[in-house]
Amino acid sequence: MSNTSARENIFARLHASSIAGASYAPVAEKWVPAPIEDKAARVARFVELMSAMRTEVHQVKGDEWVGKLQEIMKERGLKNLVYGQNTEISKKLEAAWKGQKDIAPLVPWTADIEEFRDELFEASAGITTTMGGIAESAAMVLWPSPEEPRLLSLVPPVHFAVVKADKIWTSFAEAIEALDWNAKAPTNALLISGPSKTADIELILQFGVHGPTDLIVFVVD
Amino acid sequence: MASNAKFNFKKSITDALADKQLRANFKFATDTLRGKRLAVFSDPEETMHLRKVGNGLKRNVLTKLPQLLEQLEAKCKENGIIVHWAETVDEANNIVLDLMEKHSAHKMVKGKSMVSEEMHLNKFLEDQGKLPLETDLGEYIIQLNNEPPSHIIVPAVHKNRKQIAQIFADNIPGVSYTEDTSELLAIARHKLREHYRTADIGLSGVNFAIAESGTLCLVENEGNGRMCTAVPPVHVALMGLEKVVEKLEDIPPLYRLLCGSATGQRITTYFNMIKGPRKAGEKDGPKEVHLIILDNGRSKILADKQLRQTLQCIRCGTCLNHCPVYTRIGGHAYGSTYPGPIGEILMPQVEGLDKKGSLPTASSLCNACEEVCPVMIPIPNLIRRLRDESYDMDGEGVVKGHGFKKSLVETIVWKGWKLTQVNATCNKLMLLGVQLFGNMLPKVGPLKAWTSVRTSPKFARQSLKDLAKKEGIRNE
Description:
A: 221 residues, alpha/beta, four-stranded parallel β-sheet, four-stranded mixed β-sheet, 12 strands, B: 476 residues, 23 helices
């Protein structure tokens, strides 16, 4: 187990090895991509780069995404949609599904993973909110929560995500600042830039290896 | 690959060079990866700036490594992560085993971790009756074939599609031969998803550990790393002690450098930042998170101002892709966990020059590795340094096993050479000897080996000195 003498020996060597008081002045101070000032340009860049990595992006206004979501689910014959309750999108989902008979069911994630695991591994799609997006690296920021657990964006083969257009920043560095990341980050935070992929066989890019095979993003203005 | 006394670098190079398929696979792979890197780092000025920033951040870490590791440990504890320290790979292996025993765990799903390769963890656990399962597709392929990785980033890059198809057909019950990559992918997906669901413990590496917040960062594309760290009830993370970074704001440039250098991506599919086990109210995530911090010689490397630059490495593997030697012989020929230029400077320092001192000879010193290194490690200089230490030139070597190449004959030859350079009479005699007998030297011993791949020089009848005396120096 945790070996205190190992710790002591390592630190003794580290302290003996490091050059005491040798502070280092870097040649170049910082690297921050130049901000894209215009919101429309940020959104356009985000959509362009996300789409390039085989993410399906739909730009919608207001609550239009719910109808679009139902449309896609029908088109693809998805058999259910797992979601988290008491989130910004959950009320809209529940309202839209109310009384609908010809649409695949909504499955709320209410139990701990131990009880929910088998159901989750059988699910065909999951939907999550996001904290926003990063234009220059084409990624979404996800902060899983008790309402929206981390595996919701990983286990179901299709992942739907909702990104607010006015929460699309230029760079990761900007997002860190805007979200007060250091103080507020949850147990597990994520950047997600596309469907699961690999190039381990002859460097051929293939999608859908362990996580979602499809990532479908609604950019909501 | 386990290091052993039988390691014969010359022989493994000869064997690798004779394998045409292997050379073709590597040439294709490294050409492709170089092209991708170039496409993402298309602006040389910005790339240089970014590399300088990366270099500064990592050098900064090395100047205050003990303080940062103490901070990391304290913050991790605050977050509920249990921190373990291991001086050697044996200690690290036993910590993993103890954790498995404590949780009555049999099956372990593993994300990609070079430190676990360094520990030969799979073999160790198998010998203890445990079932460690690699889940990164490349690692999965080579585990099926019972091989070590041949590249830091793309571990199965030495295999082409046909060879992989055969490995699947031979080793997975019920699978028939198919070269269709999407079918191969579906097979692996199906098999591994079942393992994620039922594994007792998950293991991962660490790309960056943030000291100020106690956050473990994992970089990956496949999602297997997230599966291993989020589905099983226990997560064990392994890191070399040099992986600590000071602040969250240091991450964006380092992450950009890592993705661009490793695979030519702007960003990977997943950047996973773990701050601890499942908290009250949360519905998933492991109930325990353990961090094992491994030394295995690293704290000693820190002592030498020049050699410590080795510890700046962020394991992107781009020096492998740009190395003319690696491209031709592939990763396995190095017989070491870390192949290529970075392996040439890291392995001898970790295992000793007497064991791995032949690795630094596998370099043309063309400087390609230094030109692309995202954190600007002067690899060729460090290779020269280790070559010097192999002969213990100044008698002040710090690397274990220094002076292992020193031989009486060579020492006498160099002493003699020195004499001919400092003593005018000896110099004259030497030049005269070369003029008269230089072209008659019999091609035996080292001279035979040397001339087997080189044209031997023809000595002139008159030395340059004599010519200069007679004719003067033109254009003076």
